[in-house]
Each structure stands twice: as structure tokens, then as C-alpha cells.
Amino acid sequence: MKLQKKTMVLTVLSALVLAGLLGWAFAPRPLEVETAQVTEGPFETTLEEDGRTRLRERYLVSAPLGGRLSRIALKEGDAVQAGEVLATLAPALSPMLDERSRLEADARVETALALLQRADSRIGRAELAQQQANADLLRTEPLAGQGYLAPSRLDDARRAALAARSELDTARLDREVAHRELAQARAAVAALRGPDAGRSASAFGVRAPVSGRVLKLHQTSEAVVALGTPLLELGDTRRLEVVADLLTSDALQIPSAAVVRIDRWGGPGELAGRVRRVEPAAATKVSALGVEEQRVKVLIDLTSPPQDWVALGDGYRVGVRIVTRSEPKVLQVPVSAVFPAQPAALAGAAADNAASGPSGAAASAVFVVDQLRLRLQPVRVLARNTRQAWLADGLQAGQVVVIYPAAALRDGARVQLR
Length: 418
Prior knowledge:
The protein is 29% helix and 35% strand. The protein is α+β, with helices and mostly antiparallel strands and 418 residues long. It folds into three domains: 31-42 and 330-417, Beta Barrel (conserved putative lor/sdh protein from methanococcus maripaludis s2 fold), CATH 2.40.420.20; 46-54 and 239-326, Beta Barrel (Elongation Factor Tu (Ef-tu), domain 3), CATH 2.40.30.170; 95-198. It has a six-stranded antiparallel β-barrel with strand order 2-11-15-13-12-16. A four-stranded antiparallel sheet has the order 3-10-8-5, with no helix packed on it. A four-stranded antiparallel sheet has the order 7-6-4-9. Strand 20 (381-384) and strand 21 form a beta hairpin. The chain is elongated and about 140 Å long.
């Protein structure tokens, strides 16, 4: 009898132990999750696109008269000064001077004179614009210092003064180019009408219209060239700009004089830039997937010191990030923490506060970790970029949220921080 009672007790204890082991084995385990904190800080939205550098001014040097071109000793990248001899031309054969040749030479001189007069007029307009911009700046600075004008008005006045100065420099450069072209046209007339016309004459030097670098050689070997044959291209690599092709729908979001950050240019750090102009005309382009797109060119000025991007040249590929919106301090979470959730799935008061779209679209929500338990929290997203989402309400700075939430997560579930 005692043996039977002892056996029964052992059996019951074994059953209880087995039941406990089975319950422990099949009990739900806390899910491991990755977390991040809700923060307050600066927030930006940007448009990212590939761009390329190009010279703001390019000059094509062509043969001012026909003849035998000597071999050009210059190479791509060589620096030249204004007025320096780039190539020499000599008569290939004794030309037969006719009335048409004389008229064409005279027309070239008249054209060069007209271009010079137009350059003088442009200089006059540019000087007046600079005087007006400087006067506006002198009036704006004391008013802004006294608080009567916004700082942005002072920045606009300074940018206008810089733009007027740059326009005046460009106009003076065009005047110098016109002087050089007039000298070349007159030299061509002298070569045709001089005492050496009709027989072998001395070499004629083709001179550089501006200071810069050789970008491309069109004629490298000695050859007989005709009037107007392209010889080489010149440009000042210190006057670079960046061109980016954007979708027209994206270009409409760019504010005036938007800040640009230039990366992936091959050098250390980022370069600063500013949008100068969005061109008014778009063009149809076919994407790599074969889709027709309407794209427009956005012109960007480099505002970083020239010594920071001295290695850049014409036609280099860069990455541009155009800032379309900037906020100094907002509530934000990693964009990987926000996910869509139907309002019906949000429990209790959370469903009442869910921000749904105008047509019943899914609301946004996050999982908040509170004492190792999940709480489904609806949020209202105002904007987002590639890394952060700007929240209007629903959370507080310092709270912990789950990033990359798995589909198995549920409201109230126990979790373990990974």
C-alpha cells in the first residue's frame, strides 16, 4: 500500500515537471528588435541628381584666312595668355585676288567693328547696373543693421552687387575679344591688299583672344586650311559651373537661389554651390528604361573657394543635392521606423488620432518600446528624406522606437533589444 502511494506521488511529480518543461518550451519568446531614439534637430529635403561641370565661356579660335597652317605646338591643358601666338598661317599658293575676296574681307572688318561697338554698349549698361547695385547695397546695409529690413534683403542686395560686377567683367572680356577679332580682320585685309598680296608672304600669327587653357585641338598637324577652319578651343577653367538635368516636376520645387551640396566629385568633402537659373525650356529625353521624360537644365554656381576645386575640369561628373526645404529644429525619427497602418488596426485612442489621407489612405505609425513592450503609436509625417522623417505630433524626443519592424510585431508584444 505504501509502495503504491509512493509510486503515485512520483508519477504526479513527474507529470508536473513534464508539463512545466513543455510550457516553458512552447511559451512565446520576446522578439529581438533594433531601436533608435526620437530626436530634435535640423531637417532638410533635397533633390539628388548627377551633374557635370562646364565652362561658362568657351572660345573657338578659327583660321582668319586660308593658307598653310604650321604644326601647333600646344597641347590640351596648356595655359595661354591673351595676345599670345597660337598658330601661324602662310600662303599656300599665290592667291588670285578677285572682287569677291576684297568684299568679304571688308565685310569682316565691318562686322568686327559692329561687334566692338556692341561690346562698348554692353560695358556701359553693365557699369550702370553695377552703380545701381552698389547704391542699393549702400542703402540696404544701414537699414538692415537697424532692423528695418530683413537679413534676406541684405543678402539679395549683396548677391545683386556681385552679379553686376561679374557681368561687367564679362562685358570687358567680350570687348577684348572684339578688339582681337578686329585686329585679325584688319590684318587679313592688309595681307590681301598689301605689297605681298599675290605672292609668297610672311607668316601670319593667330593670337589668343583671352587668357585661359587649351581645351581641344582641332588641327594638330601641318595642313592647308580654308578660311574659318576651327583650329582650337580655349577657356578659363577657373570659371566653372555645374549643369544638372532634372525632371520638370522636381525643378518646380527648387526655390530661388537654392543651396546646393556637391559630392562624388572625386575630392575630399563636399563643395558648396547655389542655383543660378532654371532654364525655361525643357527637352524630351529617354531614360535607361526606355521611358520618355521631360527634363530641364539647372545651372549651379560654385561658391566654394576656387582652391578647393582646382582639380576640376570641363565635363567632369559630379553629384548634386539641391536643398528644397530646410528646418532648423524639428521632431524626427529614422525613416525606417515609420510604416503604413490602417486606422482600424490602431487600438483605442490611437485609432482616433491617426492621420489618414484625404481618400482614406493608410495612416502612418511607429512601434514605441515602453518597458520592453511594444506600443503602436500613430504619427503624422510632414516630410521625409532618405534618412529621417519629420513628425508633426505623436512622439516626444528621447522615446525609443523600433526600426525595420518585422511583420510579426504586434501591439503589446514583449521584445528584447538587439
